[in-house]
Amino acid sequence: MPRPIDVSGQKFGRLTAVAPTAARSGGKVVWSCLCDCGETCVAAVNHLLDGRRVSCGCAKLAGSQITRKTPRHGHYVGGFPSPTYHSWSSMRTRCLNKNTTDYIRYGGRGISICDRWSTFENFLADMGERPAGTTLDRIDVNGPYAPGNCRWANDAVQQSNRRNTKLLTAFGQTWPIKRWAAEFKMDSRTIKSRISDGLSLEKILIEKINNTSA
Known about the structure:
Distance between the termini: 82 Å
Radius of gyration: 24 Å
Low-confidence stretches: 62-70
Strand content: 15-25%
Order of helices and strands: EEEEHEEHHEEHEEHHH
Structural class: alpha+beta
């Protein structure tokens, strides 16, 4: 039996092949695809290769000037995706499209998306509208995109939640060094230096409190 053709990341018209599904059409593998308009769809691999499928259907809309499909959920404004829809679409791209620059930091290191969020409607029901000034953030940065592990967060929260952010615990609280420095009106470099000298964070902060109150 011939090995199935791998077209992941390849572009066919407006469609980018994302991942194979378990479905078959005429014995051919059916692929999940992401359209340039932001919609997702499925297509048999032979239909992609021979040019029979080049879009999710938006290319067939009446009038050659209409290039974007308006989904039923209404999250397109003036032909462009809403912030909430953009977050969902970007999540899928960085986890599923091997040709994107962010893939290595997401899908490439095993970050997955729960099956429920394969449709935007379910994502919207679970997450709600994206508030202004926020983007999609995973609470466990090594965990999946799924209900319970995702939130809308501002830049400050996301910065403190990065993989390379060092967290320190004192007085029962665990915060990044920058937050400890801000809370106690200290230079973060001073805290780092004194920790390198062998002092515990609590001792550093207690000394700061004592010196301030003296």
